């Protein structure tokens, strides 16, 4: 009986950990998505610019003038990276969800077992 | 901009709900109610933030109109160094402004091009705002339905408990029974 209690506690702790991990992963994905949206807006803005327009990049406290092609490739590179990160986070979220579902089933089974055992004791 | 994904997940939940809302036990219904209220709060917060952002862009348009366009290099301006400290200054270049296009990039634009840029931003936000408003309306409807069903269930349970005088919710029945 006591063993079961301990097991139950362990299970619910792992489940809680899964939930926390899921929460952080989802937050990370949301952050990535908003970064992606911002970079896409910048990319779109660059597309509509004339070849000779002045583009500056904020580096610390100073504005540095940058070539349009260079700025473009930087933003493209960022979008590429962010896209990859998003797929990575997606797979991680899926993994966590699967793991947490498995633990949940285990937990419910154990609870049912314990309930049955308790009922059996009351009856006998 | 992550708010754009919200309406989609919302309509998903809606579809699932439509199937079995009245068959759910009270406990799950109140969980659902709680979750819906949370989502609603999140949406309203996003809405408020978007509104604030839109107001900032509108401010930029107004500043260009009032402060830059039609002014010459002779016009003195007060430049804020902090929110409460200003220095008088004269623009060296009129007709062009430096616009923050996001992610640390600034582009030099003519005043009219800058106005077009900000107007585009305001219009984009308008679209997002109406999306969110629609989502809020739908969520509000969902929440009302869930609350109605929940109230009906609780009432029915109370009545049952009152008549039967037993069961685990039988506290109201006890005085009658004695």
Automatic annotation (TrEMBL), chain A:
GO molecular function: protein-folding chaperone binding; unfolded protein binding
Gene Ontology biological-process entries: chaperone-mediated protein complex assembly; protein folding
Keyword Coiled coil tagged: yes
Key words, A-Z: Chaperone, Coiled coil
GO CC annotation terms, alphabetical: cytoplasm; prefoldin complex
Coiled coil stretches, renumbered: 1-52
PANTHER family: PREFOLDIN SUBUNIT 6
Family statement: Belongs to the prefoldin subunit beta family.
Entry protein name: Prefoldin subunit 6
TrEMBL record, chain B:
Coiled coil: 26-53
Cellular component terms (Gene Ontology): cytoplasm; prefoldin complex
Alphabetized Pfam families for the sequence: Prefoldin (PF02996)
Superkingdom, natural source: Eukaryota
Keywords attached to this entry: Coiled coil
Molecular function terms, GO-annotated: unfolded protein binding
Annotated stretches, region: Disordered: 157-178
Gene Ontology biological process terms from the UniProt entry: protein folding; RNA polymerase I assembly; RNA polymerase II core complex assembly; RNA polymerase III assembly
Gene3D superfamilies documented for this protein: 1.10.287.370
Keyword Coiled coil attached: yes
NCBIfam families tied to this protein: prefoldin subunit alpha
Family listed: Belongs to the prefoldin subunit alpha family.
Identification of the protein by name: Subunit of tubulin prefoldin
């Amino acid at each position: 009986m006591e063993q079961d209690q301990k097991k139950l506690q362990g299970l619910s702790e792992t489940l809680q950990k899964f939930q926390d991990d899921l929460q952080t992963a989802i937050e990370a994905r949301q952050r990535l998505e908003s970064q992606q949206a911002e970079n896409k807006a910048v990319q779109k803005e660059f597309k509509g610019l004339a070849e000779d327009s002045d583009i500056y990049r904020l580096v610390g406290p100073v504005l540095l003038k940058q070539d349009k092609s260079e700025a473009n490739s930087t933003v493209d590179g960022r979008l590429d990276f962010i896209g990859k990160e998003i797929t990575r986070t997606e797979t991680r979220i899926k993994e966590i969800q699967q793991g947490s579902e498995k633990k949940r089933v285990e937990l419910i089974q154990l609870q049912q077992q314990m309930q049955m055992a308790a009922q059996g004791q009351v009856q006998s | 901009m992550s708010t754009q994904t919200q309406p989609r997940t919302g309509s998903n939940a809606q579809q699932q709900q439509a199937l079995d809302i009245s068959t759910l036990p009270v406990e799950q219904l109140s969980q659902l109610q709680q979750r819906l209220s949370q989502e609603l709060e999140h949406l309203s917060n996003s809405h408020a933030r978007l509104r604030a952002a839109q107001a900032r862009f509108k401010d930029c348009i107004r500043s260009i109109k009032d402060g830059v366009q039609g002014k010459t290099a002779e016009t003195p301006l007060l430049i804020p160094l902090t929110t409460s400290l200003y220095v008088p200054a004269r623009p060296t270049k009129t007709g062009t402004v430096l616009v923050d296009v996001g992610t640390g990039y600034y582009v030099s634009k003519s005043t009219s091009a800058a106005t077009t840029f900000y107007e585009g931003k305001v219009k984009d936000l308008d679209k997002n705002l109406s999306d969110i408003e629609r989502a809020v309306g739908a969520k509000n409807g969902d929440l009302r339905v869930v609350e109605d069903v929940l109230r009906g269930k609780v009432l029915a349970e109370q009545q049952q408990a009152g008549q039967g005088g037993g069961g685990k919710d039988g506290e109201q029945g006890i005085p009658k029974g004695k």
